[in-house]
Amino acid sequence: MKLILLGPPGAGKGTQCKRIIEKYGMIHMSSGDILRAERKANSDLGQKAQSYMDSGALVPDDLIIDMMIKAIKEAPASGYVLDGFPRTVAQGDGLDAALANAGEKIDAIVNLQVPNEAIISRMTGRRCCPVCGAVYHIENLKPKTEGQCDKGCGELVQRPDDTPEVVANRLKIYDEQTAAVVGYYQEKGNVILDIDANQEIDKVTADVFEKLDALKG
């Protein structure tokens, strides 16, 4: 299967993506990871992207599309889950055009849905260990000792992008840009698998698997 995983920041895309690829033998294709890999390899695409990032500018859609298409062409036959791409309608259009040229198409869009107020609570309540990377939550996933990592690493911190102001801005950007991608694919007749992600993690996974199994037939 060839899937796109969409959802606002904090919807649990990372967790659900990991479970999807483990169950179905697919690969995870993160635009952020691919961008970092191209930069590390100092490829032509990586150098071009770096030049924009060094100046503080956004990497243009066409460059992101080129990077993702390159990675997609190297993907195994078992399929993939696109995470963090497409972020805009223009990126979706470019992706579809490139896939059509290769005689392929996206099978479904897994759309994780969570109300903004729940996202704000999730993200502003997160606390991370700067040493081992473990993630906790002040309400839903408390450490054994308040403010301390369970692995003995020391004090937990709030990431700079988990403050209320930054979270609100990220949600605003998502609502203005990425949420429109769902409408784009709906208009094109693609299969949209809407998932209530404002539930327990295992229940969200069960719902995702149920719809993907039905899709596979």
Helix-strand layout with pairing:
Elements: E1 2-6, H1 13-24, E2 27-30, H2 31-40, H3 44-54, H4 61-73, E3 80-83, H5 89-101, E4 108-113, H6 116-124, E5 126-128, E6 135-137, H7 164-187, E7 192-196, H8 201-216
Parallel strand pairs: 1-3, 1-4, 2-3, 4-7
Antiparallel strand pairs: 5-6
Helix pairs in contact: 1-8, 2-3, 2-4, 4-5, 6-7
Question: What report would you give on this structure?
Answer:
There is one protein chain. The protein is α/β, with parallel strands linked by helices and 217 residues long. It has one domain (2-114, 176-216): 3-Layer(aba) Sandwich (Rossmann fold). Helix content is 50%, strand content 14%. The protein has 8 helices and 7 strands; from the N terminus they run βαβαααβαβαββαβα. The protein has helices at residues 13-24, 31-40, 44-54, 61-73, 89-101, 116-124, 164-187, 201-216, and strands spanning 2-6, 27-30, 80-83, 108-113, 126-128, 135-137, 192-196. It has a 5-stranded parallel sheet with strand order 2-3-1-4-7, with helices on both faces. Helix 2 crosses helix 4 (61-73). The longest helix is centred in the last third of the chain and has 24 residues, at 164-187. The N and C termini lie close together (12 Å). The model has no long low-confidence stretch (mean pLDDT 91).
